[in-house]
Amino acid sequence: MTSSDRSQVVDVKGTYEVRTYGCQMNVHDSERLSGLLEDAGYVRAPEGTAEGDADVVVFNTCAVRENADNKLYGNLGRLAPMKTKRPGMQIAVGGCLAQKDRDTIVKRAPWVDVVFGTHNIGKLPVLLERARVQEEAQVEIAESLEAFPSTLPTRRESAYAAWVSISVGCNNTCTFCIVPALRGKEEDRRPGDILAEVEALVAEGVSEITLLGQNVNAYGSDLGDREAFSKLLRACGEIEGLERVRFTSPHPRDFTDDVIAAMAETPNVMHQLHMPLQSGSDTVLKAMRRSYRQERFLGIIEKVRAAMPDAAISTDIIVGFPGETEEDFEQTMHVVREARFANAFTFQYSKRPGTPAATMEGQIPKEVVQARYERLVALQEEISWDENKKQVGRTLEVMVAEGEGRKDGATHRLSGRAPDNRLVHFTKPDEPVRPGDVVTVEITYAAPHHLLAEGPAKAVRRTRAGDAWEKRTAAAAAKPAGVMLGIPTIGAPAPMPAPATPGCGVTG
Questions:
Q1: CA torsion 115→118→123→128, rounded to 10°?
Q2: Is 380 exposed, middle or buried, given 0-12, 13-18 or 19+ CB atoms closer than 10 A?
Q3: Does 180 sit behind a cis peptide bond, omega within 30 degrees of 0 on the bond before it?
Q4: Residue-wise pLDDT tens for the chain (508 aa)?
Q5: Which residues of 129-162 are buried (b: 16+ CB within 10 A; e: fewer)?
Q6: 10 Å Cβ neighbour count for 177?
Q7: Facing residues of 446 across strands?
Q8: Strand partners, 439
Q9: In this structure, are residues 221 and 186 in contact, taking their beta carbons and an 8 Å threshold?
């Protein structure tokens, strides 16, 4: 069921707020949590609502950072006195940290009403009601998936772009990552169910989808079809009205030639690839239990560039993994120079409780990690800028976004994403444009993290996605708060790729 199916009048139970931490999978889960709450009669707290004023506050947590629990309990602590003043207020904690810590949360924060895990997010409204009636905390952690998230109601955060989950869980055993232990083994959706969801989204006005999975290109391992992912990409290419298809995140181990061919030969699959490296050292990759080596990784990059010379490739890199020597680090720098990533999400290694790497010998001193990290960032900044400069003079179709440019109001510009996902700021056209519309511009300047088109727009194409944005904005403005539910707020999913933490959820 989608938000457009749920615009009936309902009795309002109160307002809610969902706070999301971590990876894209958590962002997608939070859309489902919002949909479930709205189906149950809650309405989203208005933007700008003071902390503690929502009737229900839900924390959708991440467990991969070393201080993830401290952050959660600090936030919970600030809500404790507010809840004392408002006895009807409820607090729920879900996500990976909840799956991991279970009863510990209620012991450390006894004012929490509900604790639920990654496998049973659909139970949230029932658990809230049970906690209210029984006047005691409800802790329910399922050990296996109860319902595939995409079968649950949703409150999408965009009228024109959407996540589509194709699998949950992960079969990898990376020593720095705790996600497989918390989200379980990979489970794949049936292709027909995925395509039916995509078609329904397009019918609502969505023009861009991002296929989502913890190891997205391993899709098919649960179905017994090694080419299932490339077939899925090609099938998306047959859906009329679907302009852009992206996916995150693949794993080098499972990235096969048929996927490269599908990307190159399917017009609406964007020439953009997020390929997590983590380290360029074969020794460190072995310690990480990453089942590829430097040669294999660079071979993939070479094949992608041969098939799609204009492809923008990004990556994840961890600096200072236990045992990493200066020579190991130089191998990472070598791969960065060879691969010439459009951008890289770089992280200083930090212990993740419950992972094998946390107890490995050879933990690197903080000052050494910091120095290496700074060298890597400086190199990647230089490469990103050089790669972006190659875009100057090109004419690009930019899909207008909402909220991408923090200075757009002051500069009289709009912002959006090029087909390869580069961020483009462009001069506001004379004619009105809406998020989801497409503007053709010529790039005049490049910075390391964005492009600029200072001249007049060459063309403006009003789209069904823009129509959907306009319709939902008008509907949201016209309906009194607390009467009609299911109207999404404005804003696209977090630009892909933007992983919050390495090895978390969909970072490969």
A1: 20
A2: buried
A3: no
A4: 444 444 443 456 799 999 988 777 888 888 889 889 998 899 998 888 888 889 999 999 887 666 677 788 899 999 999 999 988 999 999 988 888 888 889 999 999 999 998 888 888 999 999 999 999 999 998 877 777 766 677 777 788 999 899 998 888 889 998 877 777 888 899 999 999 999 999 999 999 999 998 899 999 988 889 999 999 999 999 999 999 999 998 999 999 999 999 999 999 999 999 999 999 999 999 999 999 999 999 999 999 999 999 999 999 999 999 999 999 999 999 999 999 999 999 999 988 878 899 999 999 999 999 999 999 999 999 999 999 999 999 999 999 998 776 666 677 899 999 999 999 999 999 999 999 999 999 999 999 999 999 999 999 999 999 999 999 888 776 655 443 333 333 334 444 434 444 444 444 5
A5: ebbeeeeebbbbbbeebeebbbebbbbbbbbbbb
A6: 28
A7: 451
A8: 398, 460
A9: yes
One-letter amino acid identity for 436? G
For every residue of 218-265, DSSP letters joined together read: GTTTTTT-TTHHHHHHHHHTTSTT--EEEEE---GGG--HHHHHHHHH
Residues 6+ apart with CB under 8 A from 374: none
- Torsion on CA atoms 174, 175, 176, 181, rounded to nearest 10: 70
Q: Which residues are annotated as a binding site?
A: 23, 62, 96, 170, 174, 177
Q: CA 298 to CA 71: how far, in whole Å?
A: 38
For the annotated binding site for [4Fe-4S] cluster, the residues are 23, 62, 96, 170, 174, 177
Tokens 């959820």: give the residue: 505
Amino acid found at 508: G
Residues 415/425, Cβ–Cβ less than 8 Å: yes
DSSP string, 335-398: HHHHH--SEEEEEE----TTSGGGG-S-PPPHHHHHHHHHHHHHHHHHHHHHHHHTTTT-EEEE
Q: Which residues pair with 335 in a beta bridge?
A: none
Amino acid at 158: S
pTM higher than 0.70: yes
The helix or strand, by DSSP H or E, that contains position 480, with its residue range, turns out to be none
Q: CA-to-CA distance for 88 and 361, rounded, in angstroms?
A: 49
In 390-463, alpha helices (H)? 408-411
Rounded Cα gap, residues 290 and 282, in angstroms: 9
* Rounded Cα distance, 128 and 126, in Å: 5
Amino acid, single-letter form, for residue 475: A
CA nearest neighbour of 109 among 41, 145, 144, 61? 61
User: Do 241 and 202 contact (CB within 8 A), yes or no?
Assistant: yes
Contact at 8 Å (CB) between 470 and 435? no
Give the tokens for residue 73.
């309990």
